Amino acid sequence: MDQQTAHKTFKEKLRPTPAQERALDEVLWRCRDLYNTALEQRIIAYQRRHVSVSRFDQEAELKAIRAEFPEYAAVHSHVLQDVLARLDKTYQAFFRRVQHGEKAGFLSKIGRIAVHWSRPIRGTPKTVTVNREADGWYVTISCEDVPIHPLLKTGQETGIDLGLESFATLADGTRILTPSYYRHAERYLIQCQRRVSRRKKGSNRRRKAVRLLAKAHQKVRRQRQDFHHKTALALVRANDTIYHEDLRVANMVRNHHLAKSISDAGWGQFLTILTFKAASAGKRVVAVDPAFTSQLCSGCGVVVSKGLSVRWHACPDCGMELHRDHNAAKNIQWRGQRLRGLAG
Fold first, then answer.
1. In this predicted model, what pLDDT tens digit does every residue of 109-150 receive, in sequence order?
2. 297 by DSSP, 3-state: which?
3. pTM over 0.70, yes/no
4. From start to end of the chain, where are the E strands?
5. Concatenated DSSP letters for 223-234?
6. Which residues are catalytic?
7. Phi-psi bin for 35: left (phi > 0), alpha (psi -120 to 50), beta?
8. Residue 39 CA to chain centroid, in angstroms?
9. What domains appear along the chain, each with residue ranges and CATH number?
């Protein structure tokens, strides 16, 4: 039997020399400049002549650009092509939203860069992306054919209802509390933002304030991501199959009253992490239709209408009483099992 594999991304911190860091900054600046110029070209062509400039049209102009501007010749052609590819992806996504009514250890031409390896790279590297964050430069290596290491089967399944009162509620009634990292850090973030706004543009004090603000946001993101990883791993270790609602988070954050809390919870990121960890462990994650999971009685199937403020489910037909989210999690599990043919 062939060993199962998965797609995995490894992220490590770079240790560039001062000269390499200046070179990386220069490449980043040129990439940003090319992106903005190419976007402007597309917008003007569409507004004035109703013509769509394609990615391949713009890539064909790169040779002339590199010949005329030596600073672009110093950037590897593949890097510039990738900038145009990302622009094309973003541009196509914009029109798609409009149509739907919706509002490895070295870098080419910079030299070998030391990497702070935290673990060995496995599988076959396919793409390498270098990006700058608040505390330095990072390399992200996307690999295919990474061997998976299945965990022992537990014979257990569960449904999870993601919420705001609790981050998640399981089908057995277990509740996972919401850390609310952004909410807890919000006061400090506001102070950092005000400090930036009071500084003179272009000054060293403003640049320092911007770095402090970026690091504050980075800390919140990392806290949230760490929580997601630990929660997902615990669920995967305890269950062979995990059912969840097929949420459309992008649509849900349009609710201005809930957008901040939903973004703070990071449901989309959590489900992505959960799905990957399950695949890497030989487990299964199944998305189900989210319609009426809170309204249906998990005991008899009768619709018990209730507003968002009603947190307790009390069925007038069968007499079942339990927390609203617990009821939803049980319905999610039943719906997932039915989808797989395991329930009547």
1. 677 888 888 888 888 888 888 888 998 989 898 998 888 888
2. coil
3. yes
4. 5-15, 106-107, 111-112, 114-116, 124-133, 136-147, 157-162, 168-170, 175-176, 241-245, 284-288, 312-314, 321-323
5. HHHHHHHHHHHH
6. 161, 245, 325
7. alpha
8. 24
9. 5-147 (no CATH), 157-178+228-339 (3.30.420)
